[in-house]
Amino acid sequence: MFLMNGFMVGCWAPKIPEFAERLQLTKFELGLMILVFGVGSLVMMPLAGAQIAVRGSRVVMRAFAILLLPMILALTLAPNVWTAAVALFLFGGFIGAMDVAMNANAVSVEKSMRRAIMSSCHAFWSLGGLLGAAIGGLLISRWGILGHAEASTAIAVLFVAIAWPMVLGDQPHHDEAKPKAKLPMIPLPWLLGIVALFCMVPEGAVLDWSALYLSQEKGASVALSGFGYAAFSATMATMRFAGDFVRDWLGAIRTLRICTGFAIVGMLTAALAPNAEIAILGFAFCGIGISNMVPIAFSAAGNIPGLQPGISISVVTTLGYSGMLVAPSAIGFAAEHVGFSPVLMTLPVLLLVVLAFSSLARYADGIGDAKH
């Protein structure tokens, strides 16, 4: 199910240039459309959480997986800006709602298996993004936009059909339907939220703008332009599969600092690249860096002494995802005036802030708490 969700996002990435051209959108207008995607996610995520509390995550995950299946076709067949905006709102909403249900179900699987599997689940999400982005440009150039939409939908149906009978059934948690927790007053979860936010803004930038950047400013073909996000997803998936081992070996602080260094070098390489191939290599380096930065922030939030993990993680998640969902529209507005390359060059400044806060990663190792 993680693979299918990531695959649908990956299929969207190489469609963006055609989507903008068909609807005659400027960069700023496309940024607003992408903002609609983000608003859909932010609206649907809490609704999914409430339904999970009442019905359990398996029912909710299956329902939103079914709703998500036709959305690439809907985006392809949308005849005007208004129907495209509605389709994007629903696409973002179903992606986000299914994401919440998947993670809730993965927690239940971890409890039943009594071992960690979350990092691998997120690696499969990245693998799905890689697969969707890698084949997207090739299918579009060979079979056209509609052919790509039909083929990607068929592949997504196959993923859901394979996973459907094996999804773990969990019990609803009615006591969680009306959370009474207040926002934390101590600065630690908010600082970790800023870390997650500044890690996920570059991720959102690569997802939403790499194809357009490669095609418009680096002269990449339709097939090649999809490989920016594909390379990013490939290295991210690989490093997420290895993430638990690397963190146990180096410790969370050192892992976060090394990852941030890779992300800074990668983003600068992509921004200053003389051609599309070097830019794609830069996005690949960026994927190595971003891969384990957000999981470390989430782990640290869950280990803050004297604070319930659910409260702090909710702060970090909300801040982090708002960066990934809302910031791309600002990037589109800026790129409309100065181009993508200067905008990409400013993103490492955010990563320098992450580097400054990197000592907070010690909580991911359980330092300062009795539990690890």
Structural class: mainly alpha
The major sheet is characterized as: none
What's the overall average pLDDT, rounded?
82
Q: Helicity range of the residues?
A: over 70%
- Topology as a string of helices (H) and strands (E): HHHHHHHHHHHHHHH
Unreliable spans are: 175-181, 367-372
Gyration radius, in Å = 20 Å
- The amount of beta strand, in percent, is under 5%
Strand tally, please?
0
What general form does the structure show? globular
Our count of helices gives: 15
The span between the termini is 29 Å
Descriptive keywords:
372 residues; single chain; MFS family arabinose efflux permease; globular; MFS; transmembrane; MFS_trans_sf; membrane
Task: Walk me through this protein's architecture.
- This protein is mostly helical.
- Helix content is 79%, strand content 0%.
- The chain contains 15 helices and no strands.
- Helix 8 packs antiparallel against helix 12.
- The radius of gyration is 20 Å and the shape is globular.
- The model is unreliable at 175-181 and 367-372 (pLDDT under 50).
Question: Can you summarize this structure?
Answer:
This protein is mainly alpha-helical and 372 residues long. Helix content is 79%, strand content 0%.
Chain-wise SSE layout:
Elements: H1 2-12, H2 16-22, H3 27-55, H4 57-68, H5 71-77, H6 81-113, H7 118-163, H8 188-217, H9 222-225, H10 227-250, H11 252-272, H12 276-290, H13 293-301, H14 309-338, H15 340-356
Helix pairs in contact: 1-6, 1-7, 3-4, 3-6, 3-14, 4-6, 5-6, 5-7, 7-10, 8-10, 8-12, 8-13, 8-14, 8-15, 10-11, 10-12, 11-12, 11-15, 13-14, 14-15
